[in-house]
Model the fold of this input.
Amino acid sequence: MRSAIMRQLRLFLVVLLGYLCQVCIMPYVQVGGVSPNLLCCMIAIVTVGYGRLRALWVGCFYGIVMETLLPTVTLLNLMYYPISALFCSVFFADKSASRLQYERSMGKAGRNRSPYIRILGCTMVNILIFEIVNVAYMYLGGTALTMTQVGKSLTDILATTALAGLIMYPVRKLLGFKPPREEDPEKQRFGYQPRRV
Done:
């Protein structure tokens, strides 16, 4: 009971620290004139580590605080963070035991991919959605799109994904996750460890 409470407290503190670093430190960290989005990295780490419900919760938290304290386009942050977190959790969260068993019964591998690869993929999809929405808002607002804006969007996608690669190991360790271990291929395929004679 106590360890579960401590784990939830650690998650809340890491999520809060992610927000504080985004608003206090990240404006001064720029790559090609663009600040990476730390919140997308944090959402990806929570999505892979905790699953769909916590990803939605963290997305809602970030959306509310960003909309309240750092408003940009009306309701953009409030809608983007939870919807993007929920969308990405469908593809990048751990598969349930029943889903893995179903895949194994169909002759597939039936395993979860490396959490580090999924974090990078989730971050890239999150920031890609963010940049598509930003470019669409600019275009609908009457701004002519130039190659400079497209270049900055691509820079943001690459910089944010690289940032996720830098922070995913320490953040997962801080949250109490152990490095993934390699499973026996026979155990992955059939769901049991064959006996040795």
